[in-house]
Automatic annotation (TrEMBL):
It is an enzyme of class 3 (hydrolase). This is urease. It comes from the Bacteria. Pathway: Nitrogen metabolism; urea degradation; CO(2) and NH(3) from urea (urease route): step 1/1. InterPro entries: Urease_beta-like, Urease_betasu_sf, Urease_gamma/gamma-beta_su, Urease_gamma_sf, Urease_subunit. The gene is ureB.
Length: 191
């Protein structure tokens, strides 16, 4: 039997949903993978039946009760998306908080002390100039060594291979075309 990637994914969702239904039937709680599969399977079936989008999202949020989940699932899954096939075509269905509200101190929460936190303490810092010589904006993420950037981005700094942007992890900086920005940099921590 030959299946398209979409058909394989749909059958995989159904298998995960079937596992979730069997666990719920015997009173077991669900982990994130099977809970997600159950909700996505239901969304796909409701779409197949041409139910209104808003009704599908509402029913998806009510399908699994918090007491049916192991601890931490709502925090691990703040939203989900599935491409559902309606009679008129595919639609991306987005469900925020599919398993209810999350606890601010639940699993995955970020807890910090009061006050300032110094990033990369004790490392050498400098200032570099990044000049975008291209025609499109260029984003530079926080931990990329400055010698590995887009070739359209000229770096004015001695030893760019030894530095990165002095920004918090996961953040980025946008450099517009035909412009330059003075940016703080910090020595890489691998030396």
């Amino acid at each position: 039997m030959h299946l398209t990637p979409r058909e394989r994914e749909r059958l995989l969702l159904h298998s995960g949903a079937d596992l979730a239904r069997r666990r719920l039937a015997r009173g077991a709680r669900l982990g994130a993978p099977e809970a997600i599969a159950l909700v996505c399977d239901e969304i796909c079936e409701l779409a197949w039946d041409d139910r209104p989008y808003d009704e599908i999202v509402d029913r998806a949020r009510r399908l699994v009760k918090p007491e049916q989940l192991i601890d931490g699932v709502p925090e691990a899954v703040p939203s989900l998306q599935v491409e559902a096939l309606f009679p008129y075509g595919s639609v991306l269905v987005h469900v925020t908080a599919p398993f209810g509200t999350t606890r601010p101190d639940g699993p995955g929460a970020v807890r910090t002390d009061d006050g300032e936190i110094e990033l990369a303490p004790g490392r050498e810092r400098a200032t570099a100039v990044l000049r975008n010589t291209g025609t499109l904006p260029i984003w530079v993420s926080s931990h990329v060594p400055l010698d590995k950037l887009n070739p359209a981005l000229a770096v004015e700094l001695a030893e760019p291979a030894r530095f990165r942007l002095d920004l918090a992890a996961g953040t980025a900086l946008r450099i517009e075309p035909d412009s330059a920005r003075q940016v703080p940099v910090v020595r890489l921590g691998t030396e």
